[in-house]
Amino acid sequence: MNFLIAVHEILIAGGIWANTIGGKAVLGFGVVWWSAATVLSPVAAKLGLPFLLSVHAFMGIGEGVAMLAMNNICRIGFLFLKEVDHLHWCIVE
């Protein structure tokens, strides 16, 4: 449940962040954040349930921004291809 709450809470902020500083930077942040949470999961599980739930919430932040950053990267890539502009609206919007 903490994971889902974190993902949904970061969606709007992650989308604004991806549009502001770029999808590649946000995707890089998401991958590093998500990987760090994955590495910390066994340690948190050993410490107890509250720690594990906190780490899973942090993992949700990393995953939440990843999808938005990928959409931003695809949107910018498709803007240069006029013949697939209709595909752009199906994927991004």
List keywords for this structure.
93 residues, mainly alpha, 0% strand, elongated, membrane, MFS_trans_sf, transmembrane, MFS_Na/Anion_cotransporter
**Considering DSSP H and I runs of 4 or more, what fraction of the residues is helical?**
over 70%
Quaternary structure of the protein = single chain
Radius of gyration: 16 Å
Q: Beta-sheet strand percentage?
A: under 5%
Number of strands: 0
Q: Biggest sheet, open or closed, and with what strands and sense?
A: none
Global shape: elongated
How many domain regions? Answer: 1
- Alpha-beta content class: mainly alpha
> What average pLDDT do the residues reach?
79
User: How many helical elements?
Assistant: 4
Quick structural gist:
With 93 residues, the chain is mostly helical.
Task: Provide an overview of this structure.
By secondary structure, the protein is an all-alpha fold. The protein has one domain (2-91). The protein has helices at residues 2-21, 23-47, 49-79, 85-91.
Chain-wise SSE layout:
Layout: H1 2-21, H2 23-47, H3 49-79, H4 85-91
Helix pairs in contact: 1-2, 1-3, 2-3, 3-4
